[in-house]
Specification:
The chain contains two helices and twelve strands, in the order H-E-E-E-E-E-E-E-E-E-E-E-E-H. The protein is mainly β. The strands form two sheets. Strands 1, 2, 4, 5, 7, 10 and 12 form a seven-stranded antiparallel beta sheet that branches. Strands 3-6-11-8-9 form a five-stranded antiparallel beta sheet, with no helix packed on it. The radius of gyration is 19 Å and the shape is globular. The protein binds calcium ion (CA). The site of calcium ion has 9 residues, from strand 5.
């Protein structure tokens, strides 16, 4: 039944073209760049001593390019999800079908790969989701399949961990801009799922 409900949620979103609501968005353009421009959430910089700087970013929607978060480390090549990362923490209460997107690039010797992990238990444990290859020009990334992870739904402490990996030089730099987490209001989706279940239910007579 759980699988059926997940399928129905995906079908409902596909058929209705439902638009997400912003849970948190960071443009890094403001005077307090680590605070979200829209919504609410926390972006934890756990990249190690020295932490991040800000460089020229890329535009997104109504947001000008402004700044992007940038990090050169002594050695991204040895980075791992447990020691060097950016972590996005949001409250997804009453929201389902979460999505995450960002714009990213790197320097020539920077990390070529970003691994995405997520936690549904407030950071007690993390599960690997997928990897993306991050080129040296600004590129938009999203993570298909995230919306069907039921443990993220209606969860007040969702965490996404972006873990840069595989730098070829010790001064390699990774950059992120326009980090957006979205979800869909639970009642609307559940109403569509309920309608789907009624359609699929065996006839009473
Ligand atoms: Ca920006």
């Amino acid at each position: 039944m759980k699988t059926l409900v997940t399928i129905l949620i995906v079908l409902a979103l596909t058929c209705t073209g439902a638009r997400g609501v912003t849970i948190a968005f960071w443009s890094f353009n403001s005077a307090t760049p680590m605070s979200p421009d829209e919504g609410a959430g926390t972006l934890v910089d756990a990249t190690g001593a020295g932490l991040s700087t800000f460089v020229a970013g890329v535009s997104y929607g109504a947001y000008t390019a402004g700044s992007a978060i940038s990090r050169a480390t002594p050695n991204w090549a040895s980075g791992s999800q447990s020691t060097r990362f950016y972590e996005i923490r949001v409250n997804a209460s009453s929201l389902v079908a979460l999505s995450l997107r960002y714009d990213g690039n790197r320097s020539g010797t920077g990390p070529t790969r970003v691994d995405l992990y997520y936690s549904t238990d407030g950071g007690s444990s993390y599960a690997f989701h997928s990897s993306v290859t991050q080129p040296s020009s600004w590129t938009a990334f999203s993570f298909p399949g995230l919306s069907s992870i039921s443990g993220l739904n209606n969860n007040s402490d969702v965490r996404f961990r972006l873990c840069p990996m595989s730098a070829s030089g010790t001064a390699g730099t990774i950059r992120f801009d326009n980090i957006l987490v979205e979800g869909l209001p639970e009642p609307a989706v559940l109403g569509l799922v309920a309608a789907g279940l009624l359609l699929l239910a065996p006839r009473a007579r």
